[in-house]
Amino acid sequence: MPEGDTVLLTARRLDAALSGRPLVRSELRWPRVPVDELTGLVVVETVAYGKHLLTRLDDGWTLHTHLRMDGSWRVARTGAPDASARGAFVRAVLANETWTCVGHRLGMLDLVRTRDEHQLVGHLGPDILADDFTDRLDLLAPGGTVAGPLGACTVGDLLLDQTFVAGIGTLFACEGLFRLKMWPWSRARDVDVVTLLLTIRRHMLRGVAVPVDGREVKVHARAGRPCARCGDRVVRGVVGSAPTERPMFYCPTCQVPRPGQTDEGPGVTS
Ligand SMILES: [Zn+2]
User: Fold this and answer.
1) Which of 22, 32, 141, 165 is the most buried if burial means most Cβ atoms within 10 Å?
2) Cα 204 off chain centre by
3) How far apart are CA 248 and CA 169, in angstroms?
4) CA-based angle 166:140:160, to the nearest 5?
5) Domain Formamidopyrimidine-DNA glycosylase catalytic: where (predicted)?
């Protein structure tokens, strides 16, 4: 699933290609959404919020898209073969005279009034890649810790809870916990969540600055391969519970529960 860094890079590409220019072509291949509603409108901007993309138009409406599992937006020069946007998996086409943006396999698509965007993203926590994210840490973790019901969650679950913080997926959750040698099933109240979030944010920002290589993956999707730190084999566990359980890759030697930490264990491992 695309993570916040990919979504932010996608937003920047769409913004650079479309903003400030009128759309000469728009196709929204989605149930109950008008097919050609946007032609003639000027795109104001495209921004990311967590894993959501918001393309704002000058008539006060916003096209909301989400990449979900394997969606993508590709940009091609208008008139080029890639801009033809043929294929069963094309869900959206937005084009001006220079650039054509084609949304493939999108997981969500809605048109909402810009003033109503909160109906789509208002339930989410602060965006970990937002410029003002660090100002929100006091609210997320007063005194540096997460209390109440969230504090009782495992830290692996908490990181993936988009209503707590938006934009982190399994890759950056696994990598952040590995970097800080944290046991993913520790109770959130028992770990330094502020340091963890700042570590993940720095890592994600490197992924934005240097796409792909900036991610420096150490454990994610590396089950059975040697840990870069100790040489033990990386293991795949599970966080969350059905139907929303997610894989959690970790090193069983580097990431162990500290004395006194409660844990519920890694679930099924392989
Ligand atoms: Zn290790």
Assistant:
1) 165
2) 10
3) 11
4) 35
5) 2-94
Integer Rg of the chain from CA: 20
Catalytic machinery residues: 2-3, 51, 246
Separation of 251 CA from ligand 1 center, angstroms?
5
Topology annotation, domain 133-250 = Helicase, Ruva Protein; domain 3 (1.10.8)
**Distance from residue 242's CA to the centre of ligand 1 (Å):** 28
Confidence of residue 160 (pLDDT cuts 50, 70, 90): very high
As annotated, the residues of the chain forming the CATH 1.10.8.50 domain(s) are: 133-250
pLDDT at 127: 96
Rounded distance from Cα 252 to ligand 1 centre (Å):
7
Q: Are strands 25-28 and 72-77 parallel, antiparallel or unpaired?
A: unpaired
User: How many angstroms separate the CA atoms of 181 and 61, rounded?
Assistant: 45
CA distance 217 to 237: 17
CA of 180 to the centre of ligand 1 (A): 11
92-143 residue pLDDT tens: 999 999 999 999 999 999 999 999 999 999 999 999 999 999 999 999 998 8
pLDDT at 215: 86
* Class for the domain spanning 4-121: alpha beta
Whole-Å CA distances, 114 to 44, 57, 59, 202 = 11, 8, 9, 30
Q: Where would I find the beta strands (DSSP E) of the chain? A: 25-28, 43-49, 52-57, 61-66, 72-77, 90-95, 99-104, 108-113, 235-239, 246-250
